[in-house]
Amino acid sequence: xxxxxxxxxxxxxxxxxxxxxxxxxxxxxxxxxxxxxxxxxxxxxxxxxxxxxxxxxxxxxxxxxxxxxxxxxxxxxxxxxxxxxxxxxxxxxxxxxxxxxxxxxxxxxxxxxxxxxxxxxxxxxxxxxxxxxxxxxxxxxxxx
Length: 144
Prior knowledge:
By secondary structure, the chain is α+β, with helices and mostly antiparallel strands.
């Protein structure tokens, strides 16, 4: 738990392990119901996350530096000054392989066109999710 009363602990956890574990002053996350801003001492909350970037303002740099994490859905829980994000996958901006994300974007765009031409609605939906994830990773990597 964060030691300073103006801070909270922020953790992002995936099946591969902990992706992010630091103190934060503010967290901005996109849930399936809209954006959620989190400050220290927020009431206990749980929500489903959308595919989007997670923004965390760190206490050691109060001048506006923000850490970004590409989160591909999952859940967010706020409890006792700890923000826990559990996601199938997540990557910090510094860990994103942009060329791999670009290839995934091209592949997803191709899959969408093919599935639309063959009138395969389920495959279109899956490819659109893949495209959204690739674009999210590319956008988060641009913050570096």
